Amino acid sequence: TPPPSSTPPASSSPGAIPDAGRWVAMLHSEPTSSGEAARDQRLAKLRKTVPDATYVRSDDYASLRPGFWVFYAGPFPDGRTALSYCAERGLTDRNECIGRYVSVDSADFDLQCYPPASAPSGTCRRD
């Protein structure tokens, strides 16, 4: 019998988020039906502004709408910090960045924090 491996199982996403959940700066979502080439092009474009951007497949997280590649940076302690991170990179519009809590709990779907970072709206903390 081979020894147990300490390597985690492969995920469909390189930026897998722990099941317990994390706040991220959500930068974009792309329908998975667009294909991997479109996903990779979008990631390359985002990394010009946000070099540490990565993505997850939304189907893996109940707090996200299924059927999308979700591009993000983080994690962050809360949504407001995620918005500040984006603002420092010139991403100040809700179409460019929102603070989003990503988890395997569908009850977390509404944990979305909207710019501006100085006076955010929505839900920016998970209590």
Task: Spell out the key features of this protein.
single chain, 127 residues, alpha+beta, 6-stranded antiparallel beta sheet, 2 helices, disordered N terminus
SSE layout and pairings?
Layout lengths: L21 E10 L4 H12 L6 E4 L10 E9 L2 H9 L10 E5 L9 E3 L6 E2 L5
Antiparallel strand pairs: 1-3, 1-4, 2-3, 4-5, 5-6
Number of helices: 2
How many distinct domains? 1
Largest sheet: 6 strands, antiparallel
Radius of gyration of CA atoms, rounded to a whole number: 15 Å
Could you give the order of strands across the largest sheet?
2-3-1-4-5-6
How large a portion of the residues is in β-strands, by DSSP E? 25-35%
In total, the number of strands is: 6
Distance between the termini: 45 Å
Which series of helices and strands comes N to C? EHEEHEEE
Uncertain runs: 1-12
Give helix % range.
Answer: 10-25%
Approximate shape: globular
Structural class given helices, strands, pairing? alpha+beta
Q: On the 0-100 scale, what is the average pLDDT?
A: 90
Account of the 3D structure:
This protein has one domain (22-122). The chain has a six-stranded antiparallel β-sheet with strand order 2-3-1-4-5-6, with helices on one face. Helices cover 17% and strands 26% of the residues. Strand 5 and strand 6 (121-122) form a beta hairpin. The chain is globular. Residues 1-12 have low confidence and may be disordered. It is α+β, with helices and mostly antiparallel strands. It contains two helices and six strands. This is Serine/threonine protein kinase. Keywords: Kinase, Serine/threonine-protein kinase, Transferase.
